[in-house]
Amino acid sequence: MPSFEVVVNNGSFDGYIFLRKISDPGAQLMIDSEGKLVWFQLSDTTILRVYTPYKDSYLALHSKKRILEVTYDNDTLLDLSYGEMGFDRELHHEVIKDLDNNIIAITHEIIPLDLSEMGGETQDTVRTDGIIKLSRKGKKLWSWSLGDNMDPLFYPEINRYKKDWGHANSLLVDIDGNYVISWRDFNQVWKINSTSGEVMWKYGNETISNEQDRFYQQHSVNINLDGDYMVLDNGFASIRRSSRVLAFTVDEDTIHNTLAINLPDSMFTFKQGSAYQFSEDRYLISSTVRNLLVITDRKGEILWLTKTDTEFYRAYYLDQSVL
Description:
The protein is mainly beta. The chain contains 1 helix and 25 strands. The chain has a 5-stranded antiparallel beta sheet with strand order 1-24-23-22-21, with no helix packed on it. The chain has a 4-stranded antiparallel beta sheet with strand order 4-3-2-25, with no helix packed on it. The chain has a 4-stranded antiparallel beta sheet with strand order 5-6-7-8, with no helix packed on it.
């Protein structure tokens, strides 16, 4: 099991930090405010890093071709496999539930193209991402692809990015049932209509005039307790070698930032990581590259900091009622 050294504990909490270890054997685990292991479930093999906790269970990707939902008492509620009932895409980076208990996930999409004029091959392919909606039985109910909304041939240097165009890394079901997706390599967050597939808005690098407000390589898009969209703004080594928690809101006519919690340079995580608000003035951050789990207040004061010997893709806060 991973080790945890609590270095700062000025704002202890009553719940648990829920983590996923992906190295063989994989495991789900929870620690308390003292860094003590209070619960775990072992897996038989290496597992993917993607998981989402709920009140009584967690939803996860066992592999790119298998979805599991398991209770904290280790009962399997769902086990879906690729190739059945329209489950026809490999999955990655996100698997969640909508209000109707359907499964929503980010997919890999393969687009066959002639890239000879772009420096590629006549019979070439572009790998990008999309969204799939599956019933509890695994029936495909809806799907969407980046290629349905952007022509790869009009994207600069598409031959350079053809193995991973856009790189979607997180997804949420908005309160109106539509989808919000984070594109790491575009430095953008989009809202997608869950019926028509129309892009409702885009927010990010190209749409933000003030450099101070821009975010880079962002992860873990979610809705915070203020009702605003929130991301971990990873930063970018050649532009800003620091990470922060960033929130923004969408009005009828404008999109603007509402929160910025600047993290110390020692917490810079150029990839992966997460940021979630779990109470009025408490934010849980996983600085994946630095092997740090941190809780701050809105001003950025570090209230709890734990060093680990393991990279954790995300960290979630759960209250004591889960166990």
